[in-house]
Amino acid sequence: MYPHHREREQPIFSARAHVFQIDPATKRNWIPASKHAVTVSFFYDANRNVYRIISVGGTKAIINCSVTPSMTFTKTSQKFGQWADSRANTVYGLGFATEQQLHQFAEKFKEVKDAARLAREKSQDKELANTALTIAAPQDLSDELQSPPVMCVNGPEDKLFRSQSADITLSSEKERIKKMLSEGSICEMNLEAELFTLQDSNSKLVAALHEANANVEQWKKQLTAYQEETERLRDQVAELEAHGGHGPSDLLKDELTQSLEELESLLKAKDEEIHILQNKKAEYHDMEHDRDEAIRRLREMEMRNSELERRIQNSEQNLNNSLEDRDRMDSEIQRAIEILDIKIFDLNDLRQSLVKLIDK
Fold first, then answer.
1. Which of 83, 184, 205, 301 could link 284 by a cystine bridge, Cβ 3.0 to 4.6 Å?
2. CA nearest 19: which of 2, 31, 6?
3. Helix or strand or coil: residue 310?
4. C-alpha distances in angstroms, 96 versus 27, 76, 203?
5. Cα separation of 9 and 45, whole Å?
6. For residue 194, what pLDDT band results from cuts at 50, 70 and 90?
7. How far apart are CA 22 and CA 65, in angstroms?
8. pTM for the full predicted model
């Protein structure tokens, strides 16, 4: 199957990225689809005028997605983006090495989506034109032959119109709530991607902090030893300066001074390392705060989605009730029409009887 398509399709853009898929069970967690970065490419089929996104890991197709005008590529962080494939009932996520690669992929996705939209519009216009040429004359004739007479009854027809208006209003409300729920799901997935990025950074900072904590005691011992050695060398230098020429030679004094300077430089470097580790510890606490904030926002979004689902259920219940009321109204209207026909028939009989009575 793939070689046959590759003969017709031509690659137009490629990028390297880590591929993820949304968990089909929870629809909340990301599952890595590749152990390392793979090539993700846009292909164009000139015969069918179709664009696809394809990524192959080994002998397995990780991504095989046809680009449609309704798709949207969303940047959820500086190096991570995602889009939903309704045909495959999944969401793909891509993690790039740099922000520039993410920007290039997003721009190419937008170009391909616009091209797919133009191709679909051209195809639809062509189909509509062919359909119009095929059915134009018979349709005009059928409209003239099949137009039934309309009998209007003011009371029931007015009720029927109000019932249809209520049905349209409820349908619009249902579509609006579904749109709000879809937007809430997108925000929730964005928060999940952000949380995934924060957790990854948090893991790296925790590993660095543990390594630093393991070495800090050793560095403290070395620092104490260097300080003691520095004090001892300073005492020796002071003693040599006090004795003048009676002590060791000037060469030994220079060596001791040089060793003292080296130890002071090393001591300064260790102080800087300790300062850097303290800053990393502060960054770790900030990252924990950001993670807690993202978790809180995710929980709020889940509560909002639950509320929207409840409102949709209520709207569907109201819609079903309205449909039942409309059916009941139709039955009443039909019954009223039948009664009206009987009354009209009775009036005709009464009229004929009166005419006969007058004639007599």
1. 205
2. 31
3. helix
4. 22, 12, 18
5. 4
6. low
7. 15
8. 0.38
